[in-house]
């Protein structure tokens, strides 16, 4: 059965399939499939974009989807605490977070240099590696355009690349530990993300200031929530595109 609600909402606004497709950035055939094939629902981001364009609830266009109020309520439940900036967060929050990891231990940053000097963090990494927990470090590619831009954004220029190199040197003793992997990425980061299992800290990036002055979201995955997973999926995308390295000196490899 065709999605007549979707078809009707498009008609009510006087739009054509071509116009809808153009505004959503998809092919007209894709919109046509959304209407004619109930099993071909759009990805969640396109559901929201379509609902916004047509001034409808997602749950009206696709009745088996939750309302925006339900999604919002779940998202609020995922937020453990909001810190106005990283500098007011107790250092032990990071180490306590990672000390509970049993399945996933991810760190996505440009340099995250402040954490490289924490002896407790180093000890936790070694203990978790010995326990068989997979540990993934993702740092910025020092010579990449993304790192150069972030250095300019923070007002420290080339010092950003230097911080990454120094961070890699500090992490030297962790290279080669079982289950510990390091990769360099050239991604434009909007958040530094620190994840342990179903809990994470997302440190936003703001133009003109260092990450230590940007907000931190403490998130915990809850059933039905989408906020945690949105950040977690971005970590996976960076990991897939990042370059593996086997020693601190590998940053001098292919850029």
Automatic annotation (TrEMBL):
InterPro entries per the UniProt record, alphabetical: Cro/C1-type_HTH (IPR001387), Lambda_DNA-bd_dom_sf (IPR010982)
Domain HTH cro/C1-type: 6-61
Superkingdom of origin organism: Bacteria
GO molecular function: DNA binding
Name this protein carries in UniProt: Helix-turn-helix transcriptional regulator
Organism: Streptomyces himalayensis subsp. aureolus
């Amino acid at each position: 059965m065709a999605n007549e609600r979707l078809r009707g909402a498009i008609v009510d606004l006087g739009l054509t399939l071509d116009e809808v497709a153009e505004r959503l950035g998809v092919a007209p055939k894709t919109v046509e499939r959304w209407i004619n094939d109930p099993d071909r629902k759009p990805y969640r981001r396109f559901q929201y974009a379509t609902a916004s364009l047509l001034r409808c609830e997602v749950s009206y266009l696709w009745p088996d989807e939750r309302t925006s109020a339900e999604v919002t309520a779940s998202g609020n439940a995922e937020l453990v605490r909001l810190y106005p900036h990283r500098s007011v967060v107790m250092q032990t929050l990071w180490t306590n977070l990672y000390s509970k990891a049993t399945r996933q231990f991810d760190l996505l940053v440009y340099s995250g240099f402040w954490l490289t000097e924490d002896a407790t963090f180093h000890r936790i990494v070694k203990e978790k590696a010995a326990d068989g927990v997979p540990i993934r470090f993702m740092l910025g590619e020092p010579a990449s355009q993304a790192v150069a831009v972030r250095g300019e954004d923070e007002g420290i220029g080339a010092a950003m690349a230097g911080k990454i190199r120094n961070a890699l040197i500090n992490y030297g003793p962790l290279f080669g530990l079982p289950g510990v992997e390091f990769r360099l990425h050239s991604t434009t980061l909007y958040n530094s993300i620190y994840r342990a299992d179903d809990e994470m800290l997302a440190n936003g990036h703001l133009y003109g200031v260092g990450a230590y002055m940007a907000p931190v979201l403490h998130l915990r995955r809850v059933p039905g929530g989408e906020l945690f997973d949105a950040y977690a999926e971005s970590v996976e995308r960076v990991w897939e595109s990042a370059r593996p390295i086997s020693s601190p000196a590998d940053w001098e490899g292919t850029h």
